[in-house]
């Protein structure tokens, strides 16, 4: 795989104490440091659910962060019946940020980080919400599905961006076999193996017979939950993919490496369009818009991957080599930031939408590339039917791939 997985550690970075060795004959003097001024950090809890009450008391943690959101320390306090809380003797230095965290009805809530400017003491607003088991306000705003072929099978990575458009945190909508509550159930294809999740919390995701469940409460807000599931499917010469939406889905993007010389074919599937993502990896992007809950999208893979035609390098694996996504820690929202792959697709879509009225050149490039990709797929099918020999197939396929690369190079030069 071209992209390597890099997932930062999440909240709760351990503080490491550095010790200085002392020699008996010549002690090393401790460095002189200026004491950090201390003061008060105040805040208040606000219940943003209509009719919601302020709890009598909640445990509140104060996370002290530097300008890069690295954790410098942590303090604890209890809120008062009016929702106020106070941290005494908190270190105060300009450029430091302060964020409050509290648990309420099984969900964790985060404040926005508040900076200290050197004058006014930081004051934190910590929102909480009442809970509900009503899923009607939950939707998948964006879903990105990446396909990569390896000797062991088809690697699939699905990225979900969920929103809760209501004013209550959704939790406990279903009960698992062991009695634990869960929030949303998602499907997996038959035969999915080596299933992995990011974030890889051992408590959050539960594998089921034909899918998995997410136990994390879904707080109100856009893109308030973001995660990735990856798995391996057995490869066969007539691959297909089918997905039934568990919720309303605004848009699904299917990404296939352009170098494979394959295309996706299915009803109401729009594309392909070409985009360049991380490490200059070039993908065909197909889109499907506006799925209702329980609606199914399905398509076939036409052509043959490079691993089967002998045009690719050895990409055998023992488990899915998941594409890299640089997930950012969103302290303020308490959730993961967008995967870089999702950001890349979003930027691509914005560019595409902005140019839709004047995109004759883009349409021309797209048409030319589609013709070449279709020719490659037809060539592979001709080899399978023994209509051409392997030598002719190899020669013509290399020529077509060079044509596709030239079109892609022209398109990249325009950006």
Q: Can you lay out the helices and strands and say which pair or pack?
A:
Blueprint lengths: L37 E10 L11 E7 L5 E8 L5 E8 L5 E8 L2 E4 L3 E2 L7 E6 L2 E2 L5 E13 L2 E12 L4 E2 L3 E2 L5 E2 L1 E4 L5 E6 L6 E4 L2 E4 L6 E13 L6 E5 L3 E10 L5 E3 L4 E7 L5 E10 L4 E7 L3 H4 L19 E2 L4 E2 L3 H15 L5 H25 L5 H24 L2
Parallel strand pairs: 1-8, 9-12, 10-21
Antiparallel strand pairs: 1-4, 2-3, 2-5, 5-6, 5-7, 10-11, 11-19, 13-14, 15-18, 16-19, 17-18, 20-25, 21-24, 22-25, 23-24, 26-27
Helix pairs in contact: 3-4
Question: What are the main properties of this structure?
Answer:
415 residues, Immunoglobulin-like, disordered N terminus, 27 strands, five-stranded antiparallel beta sheet, seven-stranded mixed beta sheet, 3 domains, 4 helices
Query: Which strands sit side by side, in order, in the main sheet?
Result: 16-19-11-10-21-24-23
Helix-strand category:
alpha+beta
Task: Report the average pLDDT across residues.
Answer: 78
Output the radius of gyration.
Answer: 26 Å
The parts where pLDDT drops under 50 for at least 5 residues are 1-28, 312-344
Per CATH, the architecture of the largest domain is Sandwich
CATH C-level category of the largest domain: Mainly Beta
Taken as a percent bin, the fraction of beta residues is 35-45%
Helix fraction bin: 10-25%
The coarse overall form would be elongated
Terminal residue distance: 25 Å
CATH topology of the largest domain, by name, is Immunoglobulin-like
Number of domains: 3
Number of strands: 27
Count of helix runs: 4
Largest sheet: 7 strands, mixed
């Amino acid at each position: 795989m071209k992209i390597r997985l890099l997932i930062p550690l999440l909240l709760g970075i351990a503080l490491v104490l550095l010790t200085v060795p002392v020699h008996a004959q010549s002690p090393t003097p401790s460095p002189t440091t200026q004491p950090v001024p201390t003061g008060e950090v105040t805040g208040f809890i606000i219940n943003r659910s209509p009719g919601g009450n302020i709890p009598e008391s909640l445990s509140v943690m104060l996370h002290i962060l530097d300008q890069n959101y690295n954790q410098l320390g942590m303090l604890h306090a209890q809120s008062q019946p009016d929702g106020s809380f106070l941290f005494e003797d908190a270190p105060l230095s300009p450029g430091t940020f302060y964020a409050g965290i509290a648990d309420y009805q099984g969900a964790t809530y985060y404040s926005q980080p508040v900076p200290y400017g050197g004058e006014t003491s930081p004051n934190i607003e910590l929102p909480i919400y009442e809970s509900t088991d009503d899923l009607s306000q939950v939707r998948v705003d964006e879903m990105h599905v990446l396909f990569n072929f390896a000797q062991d099978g088809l690697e699939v990575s699905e990225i979900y961006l969920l929103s809760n458009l209501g004013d209550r945190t959704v939790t406990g909508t279903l009960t698992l076999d062991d009695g634990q509550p869960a929030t949303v159930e998602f499907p997996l294809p038959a035969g999915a193996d080596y299933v992995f999740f990011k974030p890889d919390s051992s408590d959050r995701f539960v594998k089921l017979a034909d899918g998995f469940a997410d136990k994390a409460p879904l707080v109100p807000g856009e893109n308030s939950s973001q995660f990735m599931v990856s798995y391996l499917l057995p490869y066969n010469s007539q691959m297909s993919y089918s997905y039934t939406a568990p919720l309303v889905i605004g848009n699904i993007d299917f990404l296939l490496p352009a170098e494979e010389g394959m295309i996706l074919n299915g009803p109401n599937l729009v594309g392909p369009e070409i985009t360049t993502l991380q490490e200059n990896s070039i993908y065909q992007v197909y889109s499907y818009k506006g799925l209702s809950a329980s609606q199914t999208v399905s398509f076939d893979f036409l052509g043959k991957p490079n691993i089967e035609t002998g045009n690719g390098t050895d990409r055998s694996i023992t488990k899915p080599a998941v594409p890299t996504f640089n997930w950012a820690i969103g302290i303020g929202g308490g959730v993961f930031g967008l995967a870089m792959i999702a950001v890349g697709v979003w930027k691509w879509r914005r560019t595409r939408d902005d140019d839709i009225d004047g995109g004759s050149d883009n349409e021309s490039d797209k048409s030319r590339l589609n013709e070449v990709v279709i020719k490659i797929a037809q060539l592979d099918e001709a080899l399978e039917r023994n209509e051409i020999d392997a030598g002719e197939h190899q020669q013509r396929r290399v020529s077509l791939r060079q044509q596709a690369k030239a079109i892609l190079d022209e398109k990249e030069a325009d950006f």
